[in-house]
Specification:
Helix content is 35%, strand content 0%. It is mainly alpha-helical and 91 residues long.
Length: 91
């Protein structure tokens, strides 16, 4: 059974689009409990040293996610979850 895809309330596992999309620390912990041995991590959002593991993770995520199909804004002009996650990762 997958983890709940909720973005509201105290038991939420995902951030809302306004907050930058992606999983919360609590969501990652819940995923790891249901999938032992997984290496899922939260977003690299802070300042990192060039060439560090975190910097390489960020560069890899940005390269993969930037190439994904789909708009950066929805029909009402609001940023999509794709745009929010790229912003949160500082791509």
């Amino acid at each position: 059974m997958p983890i709940r895809k909720t973005t509201k309330g105290s038991g939420r596992n995902y951030l809302s689009t306004k907050e930058g999309a992606g999983m919360t620390k609590k969501g990652v912990a819940a995923y790891k409990r249901k999938n032992p041995g997984s290496k899922l991590k939260t977003a690299v959002t802070g300042k990192v040293k060039p060439g560090s593991k975190s910097a390489k993770r960020r560069k890899s995520f940005c390269a993969r996610m930037s190439g994904m199909p789909g708009p950066m804004k929805d029909e009402k002009g609001r940023p999509t979850r794709k745009a929010a996650s790229l912003k949160r990762w500082r791509c």
